[in-house]
Amino acid sequence: MAAVSAPPYMKPLHPVHAILLAFPFPLFLAALIGDFAYWQTFHIQWANFSSWLIAGGLVGGGLAMLWALVGLFRYRGSGSSRPLIYFIVLLVMWVLGLINAFVHARDAWAVMPEGLYLSTVTTLLALVASMIGYSGFRSREAV
User: Fold this and answer.
1) How many structural domains compose the chain?
2) Is 15 domain-assigned?
3) Is residue 109 part of a domain?
4) Among residues 7, 33, 59, 119, which one has the fewest Cβ atoms lying within 10 Å of its Cβ?
5) What is the pTM of this model?
6) Closest CA relative to residue 138, chosen from 85, 84, 82
């Protein structure tokens, strides 16, 4: 009889963590779209929309980052660096999002071009964090 080994399974995110992780990417993406609209039209309300969207992305991203920190300690002995990379990406996304919020708090005419650059980088980091988070973590290998 041949020994059959099952492939390692991926542990999905906790449903609450998945809900929290669903907020940063669309909110930062909408802020990026608002920054593009402001860059094209210079209507101040677009900068205001972006400021509020960034604030929402920071709240959702901060809660997801706290949940990832708890998960980092839970999977500490697994030998995988994936939870650490996930947490670091969320942390860098949140810090750059906070800097972006500070840039957007300035006078609307002073937001460009730094706000657009920071919104782009923050959106890309939110996308990477979502891809890492939703792809699951390798929890153990079958023998």
Assistant:
1) 1
2) yes
3) yes
4) 7
5) 0.85
6) 82
